[in-house]
Amino acid sequence: MSDLTNRSRKILLAVVTEFISTGAAVGSRTLARKYGLDLSAASVRNVLADLEEAGYLKQPHTSAGRVPTDRALRLFIDTLVQARAYSPEEQAKLGQRFAEIYALATDPMREAGRYLSELSGTAAVIASPRTELRALSQLRFIPTRPGQLLAVLVFSDGSVENRFIQIEEVPAEPELTRIHNLLADVIEGRSLGEARDLFARRLADERIALDALRRRAFELGRRATADVNRRGGDVVIEGQGKLIDLPEYTDASRLKKLLRALTEREDLLKLLDKVIAAGAVTVFVGSEAGELGEGDLSLVVAPYTEHGRVAGTIGVLGPTRMDYAKVMPLVDATATAMSEALGGRRGSS
């Protein structure tokens, strides 16, 4: 907000704060009365007009007060970069709850989403771990018939994926044992995607001399991992009713945009992929969220890890007047608690 005077900045932050609290257009009398500005309503109106001209505010109707634009909300959020973090006691309480969820719940992702929805008062969004980011524990090959192997991929979370591989000659049992031992050393500590890339690099690099056993092992590894779904997982949304019940969605056109965003999830998936790449708490405000909700929604989301690697995302979806000061540290703390429950630590990848 370097282009604003101290007075303009104070009034703009007051407008944003009031709008987040009420969801209604903010008038000069309200600002002068509630925010200790030591200015007359007329003086406040002049500043509001200047802020509107600068693109920070807009007026829904000629006689109405003003509401912040996405630009104003973004600047407000940027002032919260140093927002209050959770205390060690609060983080421990959150961590204990997530440990219970992942130890006892039959569907921990949905239960985690419901819990975050209760804490935030709006909808929670969780992207399940993408297959290629999950830690690979074992890779085994089982002969099934002449010319065919069953590749068994075992992940560190205990899940298993199988696929059949057609080959000219099935290795004898002693050779398969050596292949399994060799691959165990190669995949240790690697995600599926990392192992897949390693197999491809080793086979393509002519400078690396591979004996017959290694070449066969890497070729089998490459074929076993090549076509595993790169997106994997899904998006879980909990607390949709809390979101729909918010006052702004009594308007039929806004409700229609919201329902479209909740059911057609491709735009949401694209945003969540960006967060995985960023590796930190990210806020998408209104138009920054692209087609999601046609500029009428905000998303606060953070990555969580599984055994130290970024595996998915968790966050909050709500209207642009979201309580960012509350939600940003909540999402950050929740992602940390979820990572610890999955046996990882945020930021250690």
General description of the model:
The chain is of the alpha+beta class and 349 residues long. The protein has three domains: 73 residues, Winged helix-like DNA-binding domain superfamily/Winged helix DNA-binding domain (Arc Repressor Mutant, subunit A, Orthogonal Bundle); 152 residues, Beta-Lactamase; 94 residues, Heat-inducible transcription repressor hrca homolog, domain 3 (Enolase-like, domain 1, 2-Layer Sandwich). 48% of the residues lie in helices and 18% in strands. It has 13 helices and ten strands. It has a five-stranded antiparallel beta sheet, sandwiched between helices. β5 and β6 form a beta hairpin. α2 crosses α3, α5 packs across α13 and α7 crosses α9. The longest helix has 18 residues. The chain is elongated, with a radius of gyration of 26 Å. The chain starts with 5 loop residues before the first helix and ends in an 8-residue tail after the last helix.
Overall SS class: alpha+beta
Number of spatially distinct domains? 3
CATH class of the largest domain: Alpha Beta
Distance between termini?
Answer: 34 Å
What is the string of SSEs from the N terminus onward? HHHEEHHHEEEEHHHEHHHEEEH
> How confident overall, as mean pLDDT?
88
Strand order of the largest sheet: 7-3-10-9-8
Please count the beta strands (DSSP E, at least 2 residues each): 10
Overall 3D shape: elongated
Percentage of residues in strands:
15-25%
CATH topology term of the largest domain: Beta-Lactamase
Query: What is the fourth-level CATH superfamily of the largest domain?
Result: GAF domain
Largest sheet properties:
5 strands, antiparallel
Identify low-pLDDT runs: none
- CA radius of gyration: 26 Å
- Specify the helix fraction band: 40-55%
CATH architecture of the largest domain: 2-Layer Sandwich
Number of helices, counting only DSSP H or I runs of 4 residues or more: 13
